[in-house]
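Q: Two folds, back to back.
A: First:
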Amino acid sequence: MMRFKWNKTTLIIIFWILFMVVDSLKKIESLTANDETLWLYHLPGYLIWILLTFPLNFLFNWSDKLSLWKRFLFLAGSSLLLGSIKVMLSWTLFYLSFWLLKNEPLKGFADFLSGITLFYFVEAFIISGVVLIVLFVIEVYNKYREQSLRNAALETQLAKAQLQTLKMQLRPHFLFNANNVISMLVRKGENEKAINMIAGLSDLLRMSLERENHQLITLEEELALLEKYLNIESMRFEDRLFIHYDIPESTRLAMVPNFILQPLVENAFKHGISKILGKAEIKIAAKKISERLQIRVFNSGPVLDSAKPLTRNYGIGLSNSINRLTQIYKSDSKFDLVNLNNGVQAEIEIPFYQKVK
């Protein structure tokens, strides 16, 4: 079922209509019995308030980039200014309307404006403040709704990433290759290695299934699962696969998206390691640069065809990873694939947030 999305302009107009109804009911006796000419002030005043709400809304949105106290002072000043403008416009319009409709002589315009009491300025300032409170409530609601939708999208992306990771780990050729290696080790009498590989495979599957459903985990936790996967692959490739880690201690508690490295390494084996017969390398590195975290996964093997668009090199796993980075960090993340020496390097750059011990 579709949900109606309230437009801010609609809400502003509804607010002023309700305000006009309530205010008129409160003043109906004085407006009819005492001085009916006050209708010439109040009714145009509501229209002026509606029109002035839009520049007030613009200033309210613009002030969002200011600090809390600066924003408060700026909006208080804006409220005072626009409230004063409203009072002057209302009474000017009242002066002209009274003169035209009643055709009665009035005192000088300057004298007329100077007679406006302080009460109307205070009233206008208070009403401007009420409008700002309404705008603030709308802003909080919109941010809450946006965050809820964003969290729902992130949960969906995480579920897809987990499912994709499990598919990678459970797909037939991975288990078939692992089973062949175990069988070979048993035939060669290397039972201890076979047992270690079986244990490693069990740990990998268990950790994948038990991984908490969190969007962000520490880099150290992410590497723990990845090492299980690489240990199995290193047994399959025997002595020709060399794995290097360059993970400074200062980066191990950095928060990273859950299951973000698995697709990169899987892509490295599929398009790089499996394509060469000689020595193969996997290098996983992390570095803190200012307030940014850079993660690099390098694999030896065929380089990318520079004549083709980079997106042609994105499989399902990499595409999901890029989408998740965008969902979590919006435009504050980077992903790239580059040719480097005799291989390809995947690079991720995200804001550096460290888990508190």
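A: Second:
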Amino acid sequence: MTWQLASILPVWALAIIGAVVIGLFSAPDQYFTWVPIVFAAAIIAAFTIQLAIRRKEGFVTRVMVSTGGALVALAASTAIFAVVS
């Protein structure tokens, strides 16, 4: 695994774990309140991880891929929440 991928996957994992936690522990009428909060946490985590690496090359691409993957994961969970609730 390359260091670029190793810096992206934790953000995706955070989004997926956040979606699962929302689905398990949140009331159905609160699903759509918590999803943006998890996405905000994923964005903060993406910037934190990428700034901690201290490499300029590909910074924007790594942040974009990190947040884009989190967005896709949370969009899929939102679709599932819409069907379930």
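Q: And?
A: Residues 3-84 form one domain.
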